[in-house]
Amino acid sequence: MELHQLRYFVAVAETGGFSKAAKRCYVAQPSLSQQIIKLEHELGKELFERLNRKVALTEAGKALLPRAKLILSEASNIKSAILDDVDSGSGTLSVGMIPTIAPYLLPGSLDKYGKRFPVSRIKVNENLTDRLIKDIINLDVDIAIMSLPIDDPLIQTKTLFDDPLVLALSPGHPLSKIKNIKIDDLKSIPFIALEEEHCLGEQIKSFCYEKQINPEIICRTWNLSTIQHCVSYGNGISLVPKMLVMTDSSQSCEYREIKGQSPSRNIVAAWHKDRKLSKLALEFILIVNEIYESLLESYKV
Amino acid sequence: MELHQLRYFVAVAETGGFSKAAKRCYVAQPSLSQQIIKLEHELGKELFERLNRKVALTEAGKALLPRAKLILSEASNIKSAILDDVDSGSGTLSVGMIPTIAPYLLPGSLDKYGKRFPVSRIKVNENLTDRLIKDIINLDVDIAIMSLPIDDPLIQTKTLFDDPLVLALSPGHPLSKIKNIKIDDLKSIPFIALEEEHCLGEQIKSFCYEKQINPEIICRTWNLSTIQHCVSYGNGISLVPKMLVMTDSSQSCEYREIKGQSPSRNIVAAWHKDRKLSKLALEFILIVNEIYESLLESYKV
DNA sequence: CGTAGTTATAGGTATAAACTATACAACACA
DNA sequence: TGTGTTGTATAGTTTATACCTATAACTACG
C-alpha cells in the first residue's frame, strides 16, 4: 500500500468517478484505475461498484474512506507539525551531570528549563565522569555537565565557569581565626577526603600533591554532604566546591577561600565531537550558567 | 512522501544505522539511503546526524518518529480493520420507504435492525415513489421499500409480500351487517380517497376504475390517518392497507375484507439494477418481512 | 443508430526505485 | 603506520512500475 493509492481512492470516492478523480489528481485515467485495482487486490476487496455513469462505495470502501482520509491528513500535516515541534522546543533532551555538581545546580536548572520549555521532555542521568563519557559516545546522552580534565578524543567541551574550591572548617576551628589562610597552613592537617572515583576527589588529591601538602586523610567518603557533617563535627577540614557553599543554608561549617593560588575546577558542558548541539541543549547550557551566576549574586548579598 | 520512505525511516531510527535498516527492509543500502535523502529534502530538514558508526535522530527526526510510526501502524491495520468492519456489519445503510408503509413497518423494523446490528448506522428517507426512484438512481438510497408498479428500467425489485386492501367502515355502518361484502356493494357510495400522488391512491383509483365502481369521493387527503378519522366519524368508507388495520389499536373503525377479487398491493424492495445488495441491505429486507409476518400472527390471535 | 460519457485493456515510455561496484571516512588492531 | 573492518555516499546500470496514448467495451440518451 502506498499513499498515492489512498489519494486516488479518496479522489474517486469524493468525485464519484474515475475520470473526474484522474483530472483532480493530474494523472491519466488508466493510471489511476490501475492503482485502484492494485489497492483492491492488496486489500482483497472491491472498493467500488462500477456502475454506468457513477461509482458507489462498497461496504469495504465505506470502511476504508475515513481511515484513508485520516492517514492522508496525518501525512500532509507532518511537515508543519515537525516544524512546529522543532520551533516550539518540544523535543526531548537527555543530559548527564556528575554527582559533585548535580545537588547544587540541577534543581534550579530543571525548574528553569521546565518553565522555559514546558512542552519539552528532559531526562537526567547523574553519574561519574567515566560513565557519562560512555553515555555521550553511545548517544544515550546529548550533553553532560562535568569537570575537566576530559581526555577522550571523541568528546568536545565548552567551559561554563570556574568553580573555586574553598576550605571547610568546623565553627571556631583554629584556622578560622587566621585572616589570610595560605597553602602552607594546611600541611599535615586532619582531612576529610572525597573518594577518588569522583573527579573532584582526584582533583583535590592532585592539588595537594602539586602543592606538596600531605594532609592526614582520616575519612574517605563518596558524598560531599558526608564531608560537610564530618567537618562540622570537627573531625577535620576539607576542600569543597564553592557551589556547595553557596547553597548551604545550614551554616554548620565555616568556609574560607585560600589566598594566593586558590584551587578551582573547570566546569564544562561536554558532548560528542561530531554532533551539533540542539537548540534545547544550548538552552540548557545557558540555564546552568544562569543558575550559577544567580548563586554568586545571592551569595554576595 | 510515500509510505515506504516512512518505513525506511523508522527502520533506520530503530536499528541505528542505514546498513542494518536496509537488511531489515530487504533492500540494498544505497536504495534506502536515497529514499531517506529524498524524504529529508521533502521535509526540508535533516532527519539523522550521520556519525561514524551510528546515526542519531535530529530534533526533526525525533519529531517525525512517533508520527511515522502512527501512520504506518494505521496503514498496516487497515486491511484487518476493513474486514472487521464488513463482517461485523458496522457499515451504513440508507433505506427509503413510502409514506403509506412507513408508519406501520418502520418503527418495528428500525428497532429490530438496531438490536441486530448495534454498530451499524442506518438512515431512513420517507418519500413518495417518484422521489425514491430518483434517490436510488442517484445512489443516495441503497434500498427502498415501496409498492409496485415500478416501471423504471434502472430499478430492480424483489417482492416481499402482498398487502391486501380492506374496507374501512364506521362502527355500525350498514355494510358492516352484510356477511360477504362484494364489489358491487360499493357502487356510488361516499368515499374518502387518498391523494393520487401516493401510489396507493393511484392504485385504489385504478382498482375502482377496473371494477367499474364509481365512488363518490367526498374527501381527498394526503394522510391515511386522516382517512381513518373521517371514516370513524361516518363521513364515508375507504380502502386502507391491511398493515394499517393490524397496527390500529384504537378500534375506531370496523374493517372488512372484500370477498372475491380482493384488491391488494405488492410490496417490494427496490434497488439500482446494477448494484449488488450489501449484507446489511439484505438483512433489512428480511427484517421488514419478519415484522409483517409478526403483525399477521398477532392479528390472527 | 450514432454520439457522448464512462471504465478497462493493451502496449509502449519514462521515471524512479532498485541493484552492483566502488569511493570515502573512521575506527580497531596489529 | 599500515591494514582490515564497518559504516555511508556516490556513480552508473538495470529493472520495475507508474505513467501515457490509443482503443475497446459498455451504456445512456438523443
Task: Explain the layout of strands and helices.
The structure is a homodimer of 301-residue chains.
Chain A lengths: L2 H13 L2 H8 L3 H15 L4 E3 L4 E3 L1 H29 L4 E6 L4 H15 L4 E6 L2 H9 L5 E5 L7 E15 L20 E5 L4 H12 L5 E6 L2 H9 L5 E4 H5 L7 E3 L7 E9 L6 H22 L1
Parallel strand pairs in A: 3-4, 3-5, 7-8
Antiparallel strand pairs in A: 1-2, 5-11, 6-9, 6-10, 6-11
Helix pairs in contact in A: 1-2, 1-3, 1-4, 2-3, 5-10
The structure holds a DNA duplex (30 and 30 nucleotides).
What key phrases describe this protein's structure?
D-Maltodextrin-Binding Protein, domain 2, homodimer, rod-shaped, 10 helices, alpha/beta, Arc Repressor Mutant, subunit A, about 300 residues
Description:
2 copies of one chain form a homodimer. Chain A has helices at residues 3-15, 18-25, 29-43, 59-87, 102-116, 129-137, 199-210, 224-232, 242-246, 279-300, and strands at residues 48-50, 55-57, 92-97, 121-126, 143-147, 155-169, 190-194, 216-221, 238-241, 254-256, 264-272. By secondary structure, chain A is of the alpha/beta class. Chain A folds into 2 domains: 3-87, Arc Repressor Mutant, subunit A (Orthogonal Bundle); 93-301, D-Maltodextrin-Binding Protein, domain 2 (3-Layer(aba) Sandwich). Chain A is rod-shaped and about 105 Å long. The A-B interface holds A 1-4, 42-45, 49, 51-52, 54, 56, 58-60, 62-64, 67-68, 70-71, 74-75, 78-79, 81-83, 85-86, 90-92, 138-139, 272, 274-276, 278-280 and B 1-4, 42-45, 49, 51-52, 54, 56, 58-60, 62-64, 67-68, 70-71, 74-75, 78-79, 81-83, 85-86, 90-92, 139, 272, 274-276, 278-280.
